[in-house]
Amino acid sequence: MSHTPTEFLKIANHTAEHFGFQTIDQLKKKPECKKCVTDMPHTVTGTNKKLDAHQGLLSNGIVTFCENKLFALEKPTLLYSFEQVPRTGESAVAFHIFNVERSIAEAILIHATRALVSELGYTDHTVRINSLGDTDSLTRYSRELANFLKKRMDTMPSTARELMKEHPLAALSHLVEQNHELAFKSPNPLEYLSDPSRKHFREIIEYLDMSSTPYEIDPKMLGHHECYSDAIFSLEIQNEDPDEVAPLTARGGRFDEFVYRTTRTRTPAAGAVVVLKNSKAPARVPRVKAAIPSVYVVQLGFGPKIKSLLLIDSLRQAGVPVFHNLASDSLSTQLRDAEAQGVKYTIIIGQKEFVENTVILRDMDMRNQEYIDQESLIRKLRRKSPVLA
């Protein structure tokens, strides 16, 4: 199967907005950004744009965040943009989540990229995931890796020996690319994670298990040590013809430390980039007029967040647009937002509903509510809300 760049971007546009991502044009109109008089300087350059494995597309998010004063929002910020891959001109969509420290950020990114890839027809794919951990984790791991490789310098290729002068992870990345036996005998970074990084990674794995996502923990999947911190992931996409390479790449991860190095400000950040290979980005980016949601999904707690994410995807597949704020940990904030959006229905998932596999459906006009299972919920929303059908 094949898609034109315009088709790819249209599907990406719909997927991104359903999962709560907004364009820079939407975000910079927020009152907080327009009234902001302070600056957040950054040092993102062409040199460090080479570190993010996407020829700078992930790094561009930092530039956008700083130069458009998105830091003034001081709340979870989900940004997406259509990009042209430097040098190749290929079409890409970049997703960024700022100000979300918890693992729900990675869960949203993985789910959104999987939804996009599936919508394009590539339903047979596996998530590959690894973690280099936070600064403490990476320091310990780098020390052990350096000791391991220094003892085996005589068996290393000359290129890897030269890369050791830069960083042991640079040498390891080359060994992995060369499928060298030392790469697969080297220390496992997951064994050196700090307690916070181990907890963070474990929560992402719990999400993958709860969502029945096919995944593989791959300790040899590496990102540049100056860019990625904690979890990194990619989608391994199977093509219809096993002899052909899939025309899509999808990769992402957390880059808190990269943001700190380039801005000197602690801002949690995670992102992902999906590229349509061998394509030419269109001169004009297509915009699809989105339906105005009449439903708001409210959640509280880790399990309910994941359940809500899966429900939001089911509603996407059923053609039901929704508002939500999965990154929020405040029930009152979400309920106030639901009121402000003027939705007809609010779906509430708390710990009780998560355990009982139900939801609370609240009619905001009639001011009544009922417990209902997910299948009945979707049927009812489609039947009672002609705007959503």
Mind explaining what this structure looks like?
- The chain has 389 residues and is an alpha+beta fold.
- It has three domains: 5-133 and 194-276, Bira Bifunctional Protein, Domain 2 (BirA Bifunctional Protein, domain 2), CATH 3.30.930.10; 135-190, no CATH class; 295-388, Rossmann fold (3-Layer(aba) Sandwich), CATH 3.40.50.
- Helix content is 40%, strand content 18%.
- The protein has 15 helices and twelve strands.
- The protein has helices at residues 5-18, 24-27, 31-35, 57-67, 104-119, 135-150, 158-164, 168-177, 181-185, 195-210, 256-263, 302-317, 331-341, 351-356, 374-384; strands at 77-84, 91-98, 125-131, 215-217, 231-237, 248-254, 269-276, 295-299, 323-324, 345-349, 359-363, 368-372.
- The strands form two sheets. A seven-stranded mixed beta sheet has the order 1-2-7-6-5-3-4, with helices on both faces.
- Strand 1 and strand 2 form a beta hairpin.
- Helix 5 runs parallel beside helix 12 and helix 7 runs antiparallel to helix 8.
- It is globular, with a radius of gyration of 22 Å.
- The mean pLDDT is 91.
CATH class (first level) name of the largest domain? Alpha Beta
* Low-confidence runs: none
Largest sheet, spatial ordering of strands = 1-2-7-6-5-3-4
At CATH level 3, the topology of the largest domain is BirA Bifunctional Protein, domain 2
> How much is the radius of gyration in Å?
22 Å
What would you give as the CATH superfamily of the largest domain? Bira Bifunctional Protein, Domain 2
Share of helical residues: 40-55%
C-alpha geometry: globular
Counting DSSP H or I runs of 4 or more residues, the number of helices is 15
Average residue pLDDT:
91
N-to-C terminal Cα separation, in Å? 28 Å
Strand content: 15-25%
The description of the largest β-sheet is: 7 strands, mixed
What is the count of structural domains?
3
| Count of strand segments | 12
